[in-house]
Design brief:
alpha/beta, Rossmann fold, eight-stranded mixed sheet, 10 helices, globular, binds adenosine-5'-triphosphate, binds magnesium ion
Length: 256
């Protein structure tokens, strides 16, 4: 039976879709059977981020409205045969899609899979509720910036009313040079602030995202390993900035 994990944040643009896509791909690469479901109706982009937009025939709204069966709407990823993308519709007005209908579709698919990742829209309105109501665990993505952390705190409070089995934070866009110099909150400080465990640390790197998923950054491998094993190992985002050349890199980056 699949673990249904919603990837949410409150604040927009912090990396929900990036985290959902890369985590799903890594777990599929490790032999897990994974569905990546886009619950961001209207501003959906999981298909593009996973590089399968040209392969989509049906979407989740087609399943809900009876135009196809759930399995027909799953797009098998060309590079990761264990990864299936369930896209969302650009065209269906949001009011036609209830949380119950998405939940039914995913519950129907869950017995044949190990993980279902649900990419949540930004904000905390109907779209948030629709995505979270289908899940039994949540990953809250935030950056170490105060505005994102404040939104993460609000989301965590809201998530507590959903009686989820698991709730943890993914700290994204962490700048190793700022962490090294003490100019950025540490993951331990973020845990204390949000009173929630940080299960993954991802560096801010211009090449962390590769559109066709040709490569998966090692930080996602560590995070996926944590999800599978329940351990808590943080990717070392400061490694690049230690030692002689690392110090030069750090000074150069700080002066940008
Ligand atoms: N660790 C990172 N380092 C560098 N760029 C990143 C990182 N994570 C995400 N990005 C970039 O930040 C932008 C926003 O990411 P993404 O679309 O995943 O955010 P989101 O939370 O899903 O946004 P939305 O709220 O609009 O759905 C993208 O251009 C993405 O490539
Ligand atoms: Mg997104």
């Amino acid at each position: 039976m699949a673990r249904k994990i919603v990837v949410t944040s409150g604040k927009g643009g912090v990396g929900k879709t990036t985290v959902a896509v890369h985590l799903a791909a890594r777990l599929a690469q490790k032999g897990q059977r994974v569905i990546l479901c886009d619950a961001d109706l209207g501003l959906n982009n999981v298909d593009v981020c996973a590089g399968v937009e040209h392969l989509v025939t049906y979407d989740i709204v087609d399943v809900i409205e009876g135009r196809c069966r759930a399995k027909q709407a799953l797009v098998k990823h060309p590079k990761y045969p264990n990864l299936y993308v369930l896209t969302s519709s650009h065209s269906a007005p949001e009011r036609y899609v209830s949380p119950q209908s998405i939940k039914l579709v995913l519950e129907n698919l869950a017995p044949q899979f190990d993980f279902i990742f649900i990419d949540c829209p930004a904000g905390m309105d109907d779209g948030f509720h629709r995505a979270v109501a289908t899940a039994d665990e949540a990953l809250v993505v935030t950056t170490p910036h105060i505005s994102a952390l404040r939104d993460a705190d609000k989301v965590i409070t809201a998530l507590k009313s959903y009686h989820l089995n698991g709730l943890s934070v993914v700290l994204n866009k962490v700048r190793g040079e700022l962490l090294t110099s003490g100019d950025c909150l540490t993951p331990t400080e973020v845990e204390e602030l949000l009173k929630t465990p940080v299960c993954g640390l991802l560096p801010e790197e211009y090449d962390i995202y590769s559109g066709d998923l040709t490569e998966i950054h090692p930080a996602f491998r560590t995070l996926a390993g944590n999800l599978l094993s329940g351990r808590k190992k943080w990717y070392d985002v400061t490694k690049k900035y230690s030692g002689f050349f690392g110090n030069i890199r750090r000074v150069l980056k700080r002066n940008l």
